[in-house]
Amino acid sequence: MPNVTFFLLAQRNDATAESTQEAFACEVATHYYRQKQRVLILCASQKQAERMDELLWQLPVDAFVPHNLPGEGPESGTPVEINWQKPDRLNRQVCINLQQDMPAFAAQIRTLIDFVPADDNGKQQARERYKHYRAAGFSLDTRPAENLNETPNG
């Protein structure tokens, strides 16, 4: 049964809710990559996936996280895959969800990471995803983004 962790994101004055979420998604991907986990960053659109690709070249500033978009990289894929749709092969332990809905293939992933943005609209969408995860019988946890290193599986 998948474990879902919702991270509560604080709004930074110098960033949009989306950029805050994307930067934190890079931190989460790096966290799991360092634990030798295969990660899928599931984006809302191809445009967001391309932004995440560029962002992972910059963050973290102290390391390189091997990543690719669909159709790029080695045949077996890189440790971190960035996609906006279900991959052809779902060989990932961790899914970082940046979409507005619960992924249709969520039950096939061991660890799901989701976010609760600081803005009201983002919070409402997160509440809906939370309800869907709960109805599916997933194990749920909510924690502040500052507690990344205290994740149940990580």
Automatic annotation (TrEMBL):
GO molecular function list: DNA binding; DNA-directed DNA polymerase activity
Domain of life, source organism: Bacteria
GO biological process: DNA replication; positive regulation of DNA-templated DNA replication initiation
InterPro entries: DNA_pol3_chi, PolIII_chi_sf
Pfam family for this entry, one: DNA_pol3_chi
Name the record gives this protein: DNA polymerase III subunit chi
Record lineage: Bacteria, Pseudomonadati, Pseudomonadota, Gammaproteobacteria, Alteromonadales
